[in-house]
Amino acid sequence: MYRIMRNAWIDTTRARSRHGQTFVDEEAGLAVGDAGDKQIEAVVELGNVGRAMQSLPADQREAIALVLVEGFAYKEAAEILGVPMGTLTSRLVRGREALMTKLGEAA
To answer: Domain RNA polymerase sigma factor 70 region 4 type: where (predicted)?
Structure first.
């Protein structure tokens, strides 16, 4: 009987020490992980922008990609596309308006 009681006491002591090593306070667990809602929203919004860009005519899409995405100056983008600066500007204006309309519908 003594041996059984001794083994039960050892098992209980080991369990308590493992419990302290395995489990932490609830407050410490609150900081673990990320809800991910902001990341999910960003992915969805990026998909919306991509679909809106694909729906634009090719000339507007190219102008927006060069100026707004790649960061080229208007003059450089006009040279790359081989169009006058006024043409590039009008494509940008129409493209931006179309994007804002399409993205407004997606929201």
So the answer is: 48-99
